Here is the input.
Amino acid sequence: MKIATWNVNGVRAREAQLVEWIGRDRPDVVCLQEIKAAVEQVPASLKEIEGYWNYWHGQRAYSGVSLHIRRDLFATAPEYGHPPYDHETRVVAARLGGLVIASIYVPNGGKDFEAKIRFLQAMKEYVRESHAGGLELILCGDMNVARTDLDVHPKERNPKVIGQRPDERELLEGIIAEGLLDVSRTLDPDNDALFTWWPPWRSMRQRNIGWRIDYILASTSLRARLQSSAVLADVGTSDHAPVIAEFSIA
Here is the structure.
């Protein structure tokens, strides 16, 4: 099962790139964030992606997520929903038996840092309750926190900047500690050039001066099924790159 997540920074701006990428790589699950479009604004070529169960959860010009699941992988329509911590169209989850897959867009925190903290706290509680209920989780998306200094280029490191603050990092670690794997770091623990977002100026992406803030977090019970993970830094013109992971199917 190939799972991909991408903050597209505007689904309409990235329409052709999304169509090409999905057609090329054919992920079994596609999680998108920051679509910046209400359902009626989603381009026709993407609204009902052929061969997928499609769910769009957005609003005009702000935030928004979507979740797409291959029909030939899961023949029955997923049970889509929104966990209690969803607000501003930031979370959509699909339940597939005992597995829950979610597309998540954590608030940046620049305009309302306390809202970001509340979101992360609620997300931690959701993970705890889901695991206590016997569910397995794959949480995908833009978490807007660089987990450690290793996840920020040295030229960009600043513990006072939102996205690198100790309180945010502590909360992200607390979420992971509730029984999740950081897929990228599980398979590539020491890579100091593994970034998913680059400031959109001064050729930062081309110079690979970036941050790692996009994640696939999976229940530790899925570790034996985890096969590979990659950042597709050459895909698209969003300021984020897609992250992809493959799991064997039990």
